[in-house]
Amino acid sequence: MKKYEAVVIGTGFGGAVNGCRLSKKWPGKVLILERGKRYPKGSFPRSPHDMSKNFWNVPEENSSKVRPKKLSKLNQTGLFDIRNYKNMDVVISAGLGGGSLIYANVFLEPPDHIFDERWPANIKRKV
Coiled coil: which residue ranges (predicted)? Predict the structure, then answer.
């Protein structure tokens, strides 16, 4: 059995950077795990029909309580893993690249109180 100095779980924003840095320290001794496939350029779904087959649901994961009911019995290994919790719904990516695959330049504008007077002058909304 091969031995590793580090194991990185996930290839999203954090996992990719950590995997890169650790592999410079220990070349050939870092294992990076991802639970999805590689999405080459041009392979993302382009139509509603393609999207319908691009969800992640593996019934053996015992996560049917947090998945939409329409997906709970299907066996799919697509890009979008949707989880429904009591106070929020979450979309998680399943693929090489993690959340960066579905990030889609979504920016939420913070409310004004986030930039109130307690913050240093160089961290202000107007700056």
Answer: none
